[in-house]
Specification:
Layout: H1 2-44, H2 48-76, H3 78-97, H4 102-130, H5 133-165, H6 168-172, H7 174-188, H8 203-222, H9 226-248, H10 257-261, H11 263-279, H12 281-293, H13 298-325, H14 328-346, H15 355-382, H16 389-418, H17 429-456
Length: 463
Amino acid sequence: MPENSTENSAVAKFALIIVCLGSIIGPLGMASVNIAIPNLAADLQANAKMVSWLPTLFILSSVIFMLPAGKLADNYGRKRIYSYGLALNAFSSFMCGLGTSIEWVLFWRFVQGAAASMIFGTGVAIITSVTPSNKRGAALGITAACIYVGLTIAPAVGGWLTELWGWRSVFFFQVPIVIALLLLIKMRLTGEWKNDEKTKYDWWGTGIFALFSSTLVYGLSILPDNLGWVMLGLSAISLALFILHQSRSHRPLIRVQMFRESRVFSMSLTTSLLMYASNFPLVFLMSLYLQYVKGLSPSHAGQVLLVQALSMAIMAPLSGKLADRFQPRLVATLGCVIVACGLLVLSLMNTATSVTYIASSLLLIGIGFGLFSTPNNNAIMGGVKPQEVGVASASMNLSRTIGNLLGMSLVNLMVHYYLGNAQFTPEQNPALIKTVEMALNMSLAFVVLACAISVMRGKSRAA
């Protein structure tokens, strides 16, 4: 028995290492591409409209395939789907690097988003499957910290690679790293984790959800055109159809009854969506503000923005340990409150605000978000039955992705309203500041609502 316990502990530790490496590679490959976009656009002669779909198609694909990936992982093995996701990510990255047209790169960027859904939709499920509940918070905290590390170093790595070897190297550099990781999984990570009984795959549900996601993204991208409102209406109808279909299906992608059975699960997902909707646009907004209004160089602006990412990476493991000792909702709610305070302080800035003031506000937001993310994830995974952790993991990542998409789409609407098609010139600074103020107020409103929901979610099984 002790030998078996030691063996299980070794598997759990190695699984954590594997998932952590994937958690660094995934966001590193995704975010570093943003730095290479100007060079890519110039080389492929792509216009701004086409280039803007590079991140959008990635997110859209991730949203569409997140739930199917979780369901397939529950049926056929979480390690297997995770490995397939890594392999597909390497292949699609390689194909992007070979691109001779923007259409080619966009297609494989969409495929890369599907690969990302397989990686992030199953990674947390693997950790949950092999880690004891009293240590799960710490393990999830380390995983979250690795994601933040990937996002933190991505701009520097992307800029360095692009400057030395061109934009194609940003895609190519991932391939040997992923191949090495796959070999490690093959040789060292023993065992597999899946449900005892397979359930048939719900293709109708997948199609309806894809329709919902696609019309949502496209509709938000073309507002306030009438077609945009039509697309959003179609998106709402398809979402209602998806929920109805899933509630009646004998083989649903996600049991909608889970949301009624577990208040902790449903309210923790809602809190996650709101928090990520509030946080995701910050880097975009502050990058514009620091460079256009404050006149900072890109490298200096990146150093200021680094404060938030670093504080999130440092706090995530600590918050995981706190979630193992106290109720996750208490730690997560404290994080929400700190984020709200940081956003409130940041919303008071103007053209004369010092960089130190801005960095201090971002530090506060980073600390709060680091305290929030891991305990909230712990509450989500602890709020479902053990055989549904794959779907719960996918749902958690889905709420984050949709939150990112929602927040950025609303900010795009504000940019269109206040700035329109104008170029970023000093004459447009008042309009830019107004856009930032409105967006920060929107983020603050989301966080205040998240605080209220977080308090009401109830106790988690994880504690």
